[in-house]
Amino acid sequence: GPKVLQIPSHQIIDMGQMVTLNCDPVSNHLYFYWYKQILGQQMEFLVNFYNGKVMEKSKLFKDQFSVERPDGSYFTLKIQPTALEDSAVYFCASSFGTGGLQDTQYFGPGTRLLVL
Amino acid sequence: GDSVIQMQGQVTLSENDFLFINCTYSTTGYPTLFWYVQYSGEGPQLLLQVTTANNKGSSRGFEATYDKGTTSFHLQKTSVQEIDSAVYYCAMRGPSSGGNYKPTFGKGTSLVVHP
Q1: Nearest to B102 among A4, A58, A91 (CB)
Q2: CB atoms < 10 A from the CB of A98, how many?
Q3: In a mutagenesis test of the B interface, which of A102, A105, A111 is the best target, namely the one with the most B β-carbons within 10 Å?
Q4: Cβ of A99 under 8 Å from any chain B Cβ?
Q5: How confident is the model at residue B101, as a pLDDT?
Q6: What is the structure's pLDDT at A73?
Q7: Tens-digit pLDDT profile for residues B29-57
Q8: Comparing C-alpha atoms, which of B81, B75, B95, B78 is closest to residue B6?
Q9: SS3 state of residue B34
Q10: What is the pLDDT of residues A70-81, one digit of tens each?
Q11: Which of B49, B89, B105 faces A103 most closely, judged by CB atoms?
């Protein structure tokens, strides 16, 4: 089936530094999402993105977070500066649309971020 | 606000046992409802999805019925197998006509099936 890729699979970074998580969504998809999952806890929605804009974001999407997808390349999540509580697995997802069966989101395998 | 409440923690069964994981939701209007399955070390993948109230979704022996009356979307399987061991998430997405693009996930239920 359709695949979403995430790069890197693991990232270790010192607190205060910047990190960029990359997502290669399904090729004809139009909507893109980031989720955060702290070890052993539920997955929580961060943000979704369409047509170059953030459509909706949760309160977990702090001011230090930003997303973009320049010229159809990777869909990225940037955290600047990072904090200890940003340590988690970040999942990217994409969908073709937002109605009916087009709602189906395809998830990547996640990027495991550890902030020291 | 929107919420999805599902049975939390771990469910431990033996092969060929009956599985029931409850899920209720709260929102306005008629959302799309989902069950996702997450195997160890992987991202979630869609198990089944229902967009119309009172319809049933099924996949790989799993079933869930969108019950608008009780606002529930319980997951069932008649006979589980060891390969079904995973975390199961109930999820909801608000009606797109309302402009609600934010999906809401439940806390997840870990299923362990012993041979």
Answers
A1: A58
A2: 22
A3: A105
A4: yes
A5: 63
A6: 87
A7: 888 899 999 998 888 999 999 988 999 99
A8: B75
A9: strand
A10: 887 899 999 999
A11: B49
